[in-house]
């Protein structure tokens, strides 16, 4: 690959990213972000806008002093005081850059700058020249370049290069461009501006129409070799192009994007988490590369494919971006292949009939529960194993409970293949349920333990109930799990009762212990 195919990654999380309303970071937080950006191999870190406040100045200066590898840039308007302040802030950097910008579009010139085209051309020559007197590395940006007539933009770029700008950034400030337009803008400027080859061209895209990454790559196809982007796509309004998406697009599609960049992708997940934590902006679950679901699969057909060969449904390896492993999330869309794999992971080997029963109960559970955790599956399988071959089974339970009346339970049990239903009251719904059991299966066992605990967190968590029954010096403990505590209680009671009955049919000399 030739040197011209190198893409320079310019991260502006600490400047444009911080401009997101509510994303302000403290000095300490900015230092942490700068450190990881430097470690991951970002070429240029835009550390802030030094004239904006003393805090911003201090952050840029500190980052400039501490950063080992990356170029440190400070932003400045086309105003002497801004440029001098930026120069002062990056003075201590191994490699510093002043990034100065001015509007070029008619709407900005008329309404914001209140300047003519000729005045702005003079300002460019003057301010880029001033920056260049302070430092060798000067970037000039044409704010709102994509809404600027191409002839005038050519003259502005020419003036900036002539005054000493080494990087020319043509931002899509308001996220208005389409990929073809953006590519064509770079092609035209590079073809028409004298000495265009003396500068590196740069893209800076906003995501107002969701095109920031596509536009950035289109700009590169048009000849740009620097990409300005942010971690998690943080930035003004809908944000900037996301660094992690750019880096992984270049790596993953090297067949059609023949460029190299020096960012080590293993840091991407860690950087994303850090920026999310310090900015307070959560990362959406389905965000490309760094979203919680970017390497997670729930549907059976995809899980089946993943188990056979990960490339069936994944175009990147999770470990390449710092994610430990693909996760096969168990849920209502999962199939038998994934369920069996999960059971193996959890250390269960069960026969085909028990497997089918457990799978059916898992599907029922997943229909009722948003997240099915490993603990849920463990509870379900333990229950399946424990109740295999049992004489009595819970078929249905309806409970009426509340203030002002006794609890009522309508219970159907399968006893040796016969379904029997009884309605009973009690001191609360659990007492009513246990009374119904006693009515269907009369017995003299005493309840000596009743315990409930939640298998996982959340209001839809499964309850795991333990029940211990004692009779004639023998005891048996049963467990039941369900999202409904009352159903879990009935199952636990029945499980204990089945065991007690089984034990009572064994010879007397066998000592019975709690299971
Ligand atoms: C596309 C971008 O992301 S641009 C960067 C945006 N980022 C920020 O604005 C964050 C930091 N900004 C700030 O802290 C403040 O806006 C400051 C310190 C820069 C300026 O504050 P103030 O002097 O109070 O001005 P205010 O912000 O109200 O208005 C901006 C002024 O800068 C002018 N201006 C805007 N861009 C430029 C530019 N590139 N070059 C020169 N002047 C500019 C505006 O025309 C306006 O000037 P006016 O006061 O003569 O009308
Ligand atoms: C300051 C410039 C580069 C900018 O952020 C933009 O135009 O979006
Ligand atoms: Mg911007």
From TrEMBL:
Catalyzes the condensation of the acetyl group of acetyl-CoA with 3-methyl-2-oxobutanoate (2-ketoisovalerate) to form 3-carboxy-3-hydroxy-4-methylpentanoate (2-isopropylmalate). Residues 393-515 are annotated as: Regulatory domain. It holds the Pfam family LeuA_dimer. Its cofactor is Mn(2+). The gene is leuA. This is 2-isopropylmalate synthase. One of its GO terms (molecular function) is acetyl-CoA C-acetyltransferase activity. Belongs to the alpha-IPM synthase/homocitrate synthase family. LeuA type 1 subfamily. Its EC number is 2.3.3.13. It is an enzyme of class 2 (transferase). Pathway: Amino-acid biosynthesis; L-leucine biosynthesis; L-leucine from 3-methyl-2-oxobutanoate: step 1/4. It catalyses: 3-methyl-2-oxobutanoate + acetyl-CoA + H2O = (2S)-2-isopropylmalate + CoA + H(+). Keywords: Amino-acid biosynthesis, Branched-chain amino acid biosynthesis, Cytoplasm, Leucine biosynthesis, Manganese, Metal-binding, Transferase. Residues 7-269 form the Pyruvate carboxyltransferase domain. Gene3D superfamilies: 1.10.238.260, 3.30.160.270, Aldolase class I (3.20.20.70). Homodimer. GO terms for biological process: L-leucine biosynthetic process. GO terms for cellular component: cytosol. Mn(2+) binds at residues 16, 204, 206, 240.
């Amino acid at each position: 690959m030739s040197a011209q195919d190198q893409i320079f990654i310019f991260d502006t999380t600490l400047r444009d990213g911080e401009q997101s309303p509510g994303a302000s970071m403290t000095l300490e937080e900015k230092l942490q972000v700068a450190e990881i950006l430097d470690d991951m191999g970002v070429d240029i870190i835009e550390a802030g806008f030094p004239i904006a406040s003393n805090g911003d100045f201090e952050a840029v200066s500190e980052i400039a002093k501490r950063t080992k590898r990356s170029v440190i840039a400070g932003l400045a308007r086309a105003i002497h005081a801004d440029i001098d302040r930026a120069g002062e802030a990056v003075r201590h950097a191994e490699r510093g850059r002043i990034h100065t910008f001015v509007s070029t579009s008619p709407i900005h010139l008329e309404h914001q700058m209140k300047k003519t085209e000729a005045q702005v051309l003079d300002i460019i020559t003057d301010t880029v020249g001033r920056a260049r007197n302070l430092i060798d590395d000067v970037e000039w940006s044409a704010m709102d370049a994509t809404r600027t007539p191409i002839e005038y933009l050519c003259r502005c770029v020419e003036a900036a290069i002539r005054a000493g700008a080494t990087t020319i950034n043509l931002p899509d400030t308001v996220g208005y461009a389409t990929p073809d337009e953006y590519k064509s803008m770079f092609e035209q400027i590079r073809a028409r501006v004298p000495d265009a080859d003396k500068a590196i061209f740069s893209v800076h895209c906003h995501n107002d129409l969701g095109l920031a990454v596509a536009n950035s790559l289109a700009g590169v196809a048009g000849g740009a070799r620097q990409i300005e982007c942010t971690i998690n796509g943080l930035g003004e309004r809908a944000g900037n192009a996301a660094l992690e998406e750019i880096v992984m697009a270049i790596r993953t599609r090297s067949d059609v994007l023949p460029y190299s960049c020096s960012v080590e992708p293993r840091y991407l997940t860690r950087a994303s988490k850090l920026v999310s934590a310090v900015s307070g902006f959560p990362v959406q679950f389905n965000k490309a590369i760094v979203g919680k679901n970017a390497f997670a699969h729930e549907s059976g057909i995809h899980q089946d494919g993943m188990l056979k060969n990960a490339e069936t449904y994944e175009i990147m390896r999770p470990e390449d971006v710092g994610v430990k492993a693909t996760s096969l999330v168990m849920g209502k869309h999962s199939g038998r292949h994934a369920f069996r794999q999960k059971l193996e992971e959890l250390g269960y080997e069960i026969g085909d009939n028990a497997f089918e029963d457990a799978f059916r109960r898992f599907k029922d559970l997943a229909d009722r529960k948003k997240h099915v955790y490993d603990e849920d599956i463990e509870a379900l399988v333990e229950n399946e194993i424990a109740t295999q071959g049992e004489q009595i089974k819970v078929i249905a339970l309806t409970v009426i409970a509340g203030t002002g009346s006794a609890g009522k339970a309508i219970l159907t049990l399968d006893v040796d293949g016969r379904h029997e239903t009884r309605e009973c009251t009690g001191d609360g719904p659990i007492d009513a349920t246990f009374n119904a059991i006693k009515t269907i299966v009369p017995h003299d066992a005493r309840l000596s333990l009743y315990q409930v605990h939640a298998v996982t967190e959340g209001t839809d968590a499964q309850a795991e109930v333990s029940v211990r029954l004692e009779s004639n010096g023998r005891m048996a403990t049963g467990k039941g799990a369900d999202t409904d505590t009352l159903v879990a209680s009935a199952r636990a009671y029945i499980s204990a009762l089945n065991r007690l009955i089984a034990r009572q049919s064994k010879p007397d000399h066998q000592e019975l212990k709690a299971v």
